[in-house]
User: What shape does this take?
Amino acid sequence: MKATGFAARTADGPLAPFEFERRAPRQNDVVIDIEYCGVCHTDLHLARNHFGFTTYPIVPGHEIIGRVREVGSGVARFKAGDWVGVGCMVDSCRHCQPCHRGWEQDCVEGPTFSYASTDRQDGSVTYGGYSDSIVVREEFVLAVPDGLDPAGAAPLLCAGVTTWSPLHRWKVGKDSKVAVVGLGGLGHMALKLAKALGADVTLFTRSAGKEVDAYRLGADHVVLSTDQAQMKAVGGQFDVIIDTVPYDHDVNPYMPTLTLQGVLVLVGYMGPLGTPVNAGGVVHGRRAISGSFIGGIPETQEMLDFCGRHGVVSDVEIIPIQEINQAYERLAKGDVKYRFVIDMVTLKA
Ligand code: NAP
Ligand code: ZN
Ligand code: ZN
Assistant: This one.
């Protein structure tokens, strides 16, 4: 099946138009016309080869919203015209223990990612959502609740579920005190979701001037992480901290702000921490450092349904696909309010 999109061909070159073949739809596949795709910082990491394993060309994009064009004969849950979503995964082994538990992101064999991955059946390379269409097996297609703005819903497929999953795991509710480190794509979704779950919510930011937005997005308090007096004033407070910072940073200053048995959950950065964790900061107060990787398909659907009930969507800046390179430059500088979303109609321009 012919498809068109935007691809990076080298680590430092611009993303540019790219024509390619999608695999022919199988019996259990859903063919989706993509309407919107969010721009995650992970797209930038992979397009720019920050992790050192990117192969080119790469078509990024894993916050996909579109309408069903057609379905295979074995598909029961979707029909042409339905609004649907696709996140970071398009397949997994579906028989290991994590898959049975609905944790496909931790599939023992490794899930098939929406882009820069290998199709489990025919070995073809997967291409992501910066394109006009995608073919995905039914089980990995999410239903988008009626009434959610489709452009605003796109970032829920990654930024939404990545912050929802740890909030859910650590049982955040109306008696919880939650803090979020970093106000970007993931951070603003964490504020909105924690607030909608009823928690008292604090933003840690390195950027003075984000306060007004933070309060509008759901924060009850804002702490400038570079100000030691402000950091000290929130000592011993938080049950859960969701740390969305994308690059190496010192986590030690956040540890004393956790309550007894509180947990700091890393979701932004996945490499070695340059500043060693002070064991005293976790030993005293039985505090913990944890991590979390996107979320499984069942919890992604739960999160979407929750967002449908609570009217939660991302704050987006809609861009034509021709502006993707400028968007990456702005993302690298932290200049985004709070998620770029590509309007895929512009691909035809
Ligand atoms: P983003 O929109 O660029 O936001 C990152 C925010 O982190 C910035 O707005 C900034 O907020 C803060 N920050 C602090 N130090 C920074 C630094 N040195 N450089 C840049 N930003 C800094 O990114 P995102 O899309 O939310 O993604 C965040 C990270 O999560 C990325 O590394 C991405 O790859 C990762 N990610 C992980 C998962 C997972 O499954 N665990 C899923 C999706 C994305 P302030 O100005 O407020 O400090
Ligand atoms: Zn992402
Ligand atoms: Zn599996």
The chain has two domains: 2-158+295-348, 160-291.
